[in-house]
Amino acid sequence: MADRTVPFTKEHIGTGSVRFPSGAPIPSATDSSVDPYAKTRISKEAQVEGLMFWPQGTGTYPGLVLLHESWGLNSQVKDMASHLAGEGFVVLVPNLYSRQGGMVTANAEVAAALEARIKEQELLQDINSCCEFLNTRDHVKRNIHGVVGLGMGGALAMKFACQRKRLRAAVAFYNALPGSSDFLKDLYCPLLYHRAGADRSVTDEQIEQVNRTAKEHGKRVEIRTYDKAPPAFCNETRPDSYRQHEAEQAFEITIEFLLECFRDAK
Are 148 and 66 in contact (CB under 8 A)? Predict the structure, then answer.
């Protein structure tokens, strides 16, 4: 990431694992403290498992749900979550492959197979429960949340932004776009899309259609194109696609976008 002063250094970022029910009421910290069996009781609902990163300072912070690529919840996503927490956000990273054993892979064929087996509606429910979980944390601003997704997670971030009315911001990195831009009519929050310029699956015609539809429905959609950058240009663990300059630029733009969206939230 770019070399600049951030509100919190790595030494001031807390980390921990999280587990909570999907599509069901989330027990608050008080509920858990008065129920001695809360941690051992077997829930009938599917469970969301993941990691949380937060600034260790006084006060409350906006919440972010960070959605990983098809590779799984790997070191690159953890590093990005830590950097985002350093900017003053509480970041929850759900393991989108929890129902498949929580796998992480560096093999493209395995990643494609894992992505092919996901059930989109289940994951959208999980992401919504992530927001509800953030609402139970004392150090997170209630309903001041955004979603950030990479690749597969970017596609989910776009769809989730059309489902949760109280979402404040959505950021999608280099994911394929839906076949139709009609989904934008249901967009509930500003959307920032980082386009990989070398990705031939995303055409200029699609981008024009997105801009046209967003304007037609009065939606705020920002598209940043990184010429010659391939998909996964922010992924430091993949030297063949990583582009440091573009990655740093995209991160800075993302932070500015999120801060503006959260500042305008009422």
Answer: yes
Residue 143: band (very low, low, confident or very high) from pLDDT cuts 50, 70, 90:
very high
Question: In terms of DSSP bridges, do strands 221-226 and 191-196 run parallel, antiparallel, or are they unpaired?
Answer: parallel
Q: Give the 3-state secondary structure of residue 109.
A: helix
User: With a threshold of 0.90, does the pTM exceed it?
Assistant: yes
Tell me: domain 13-264, CATH 3.40.50.1820, correct? Answer: yes
- Cα–Cα distance measured from residue 75 to residue 79, given in angstroms and rounded to the nearest whole number: 6
- The Cα 170–Cα 65 span in angstroms is 10
Return the DSSP state at 152. H
Bridge partners, residue 170, by sequence: 147, 191
Mean pLDDT over residues 199-225, rounded? 96
Contact 102, 95 (CB under 8 A): yes
Strand intervals (E) in the chain: 13-21, 47-55, 61-67, 90-94, 140-150, 169-173, 191-196, 221-226
Strand partners, 148: 66, 171
Let me know how long the chain is: 266
pLDDT tens for residues 185-199? 999 999 999 999 999
Phi, psi of 123 (to 5 degrees): -70, -40
Using alpha carbons, select from 6, 31, 154 the residue that is nearest to residue 87: 6
Those residues whose C-beta lies under 8 Å from the C-beta of residue 91, and which sit 6 or more positions away, are 52, 53, 54, 63, 64, 65, 66, 81, 82, 84, 85
**Cα 208 → chain centroid:** 25
